[in-house]
Design brief:
Rossmann fold; 25% strand; six-stranded mixed sheet; 262 residues; alpha/beta
Length: 262
């Protein structure tokens, strides 16, 4: 049998921004159905990695072989790509402060917009799917509330709904608990666990260990634009590699499947 192509496959990828190399020869392959966390301090290249996946940035051309493929393809129409990868980033969070309802934001995922515009043709099937996703995420009560009246946690779940209306194979999350309080963080983690159990691959980019839900079995550490360490979670999330990664001595505690540094 022919093995399935990777969901995301970076081979020797380099990115330069503002005259500075921010990703340096990165090789990283993520299998379909795999749950993985990309962990690293600020400035390690994590956000650039997200922008590569979303096609907001492109690798630097260079003489040695390199490739960047998603589902085995190196060229995608952006709207087609959204059918496979649902992206939730802090950039989108900043756009959801307008006077759109939660339902409109979720529905707008079909059009790659923020909110529904006059030129959008909304079908009954789209409406049904949007409400189905909101029920799955337990946010149906936010359908008529404007996003500028929501808490950060509520808005984050609305954005996850927006990313899920296409039934993507993977959900790509950029610093998912930024600006969330303890209760909202707990609720978000429970939702992500529910999605992982439903077969959606979770690709989580974070600098915060407790974001990594128990279903994530693999962790890749990024440092200075390179993959510093990549492997099973219980081997990577140890005191020595994390102390080297963050540049200070740490102790690691595993409590109920969640990792914490002390």
């Amino acid at each position: 049998m022919v093995p399935p192509v990777p969901l995301i496959d970076f081979q020797n990828v380099t990115v330069e921004r503002g005259g500075r190399v921010v990703l340096d020869g990165v090789t990283l392959s993520i299998a379909q159905g795999e749950h993985i966390a990309i962990l690293g301090p600020n400035g390690s290249g994590k956000s650039t990695l997200i922008k590569l996946i979303s096609r907001d940035l492109y690798p630097r051309l260079k003489p040695e072989p390199w490739s960047l493929r998603i589902m085995g393809r190196d060229r995608w129409h952006l709207f087609d790509l959204r059918n496979h990868l649902g992206l939730v980033s802090n950039d989108w969070m900043q756009m959801c402060t307008r006077d759109y309802s939660g339902y409109e934001i979720v529905l707008s995922g079909f059009f790659g917009s923020v909110g529904i515009w006059p030129n959008h043709e909304v079908t009954p099937q789209m409406e049904h799917k949007a409400r189905e996703v909101m029920d799955l995420l337990e946010i149906a009560h936010l359908a008529q509330r404007n996003t500028n009246e929501m808490s950060s946690g509520e808005a984050r779940r609305i954005l996850i709904g927006r990313a899920l209306v296409h039934d993507p194979q993977a959900l790509v999350l950029d610093e998912p608990t930024t600006s969330l309080d303890l209760h909202a963080t707990h609720e978000l983690r429970e939702i992500l666990r529910k999605l992982a159990a439903n077969g959606i691959s979770i690709v989580m980019v974070t600098h915060h260990l407790p974001d990594i839900i128990p279903e994530v079995r693999r962790v890749a550490l990024f440092r200075a634009g390179r993959v510093y360490c990549d492997g099973p979670k219980d081997q990577v999330l140890q005191a020595r590699p994390l102390s080297d990664l963050f540049g200070l001595p740490v102790e690691v505690l595993n409590r109920a499947g969640y990792y914490h540094v002390l």
